[in-house]
Write a structure and sequence with these properties.
The chain is mainly β and about 70 residues long. It is built from no helices and 6 strands. Strand 4 and strand 5 form a beta hairpin.
């Protein structure tokens, strides 16, 4: 909210279609987190208990790598 990186934030993805929830990890000192092997679809991203809906799209049903930069 203040523009500073969100350090050590717990990040969770929940697939909104299947309801499957998975911990992605923690952000680093710069508020960044990179996660591979995420399938395309609609997810809710939860960071330290606050949620935001996102859609991950890919061509040919490929697997995505997502980089979060949280501030």
């Amino acid at each position: 909210e203040d523009g500073n990186p969100v350090k050590n934030a717990d990040v969770t993805l929940t697939n909104t279609q299947s309801g499957i929830k998975g911990s992605v990890g923690k952000t680093d000192a710069n508020g960044k987190l990179k996660k591979s092997s995420i399938n395309y679809g609609k997810y809710t991203v939860t960071v330290n208990g606050q949620s935001q809906a996102v859609t991950l799209t890919a061509k040919n049903n490929s697997v995505n790598t997502v980089t979060f930069n949280l501030k």
